[in-house]
Amino acid sequence: MSYPEPRYFGERGRVSALFRPTSSQPDTGFSGGDTDISYVAQQEHTDGEFGLYKIDMRPKAMGATEHFHRTISESFYVLSGEVRLYNGERWVTGREGDFLYVPAGGLHAFQNDSDDPVSLLLLFTPGAPREEYFEMVAEYSQRSREELKAFRVRHDQYNTDMLDD
After folding, report:
1. Contacts of 86 (CB under 8 A, 6+ apart)
2. Does the N terminus or the C terminus of the chain have fewer Cβ atoms within 10 A?
């Protein structure tokens, strides 16, 4: 394995880092029902390289049902608590420090079955504009199956319970 092709060709480097201290976190994110999502690094801040989100789930929070993505990989890193992760083959329990990588096309799901809250980091690569999906999926879930499926497909979300529709 080798390094990717260069993307920066300057001689001295440039001032371009993004630092956001905890004390000045922007007022971004999504709170819906049993889950809060903080937008740590949106794809527009990473030149589309990745999107990083912090997920905080209350006890017994549903999470996401079995699905896959065609264009992005998804990684989960458990910060605290216990989260049930579906790895495409079986459900496993993720605890603090556990990691799950799901390449494009990989079946996966997650939920909090415990009586305690759970916190995890969610990384999408390359970056994708997932914010609208997080913010609108509950609303689309109240619409027709056809509208929900079209919304999911527009956001590269292929839920296995809708594949035969």
Report:
1. 66, 92, 107, 108, 109, 110
2. N
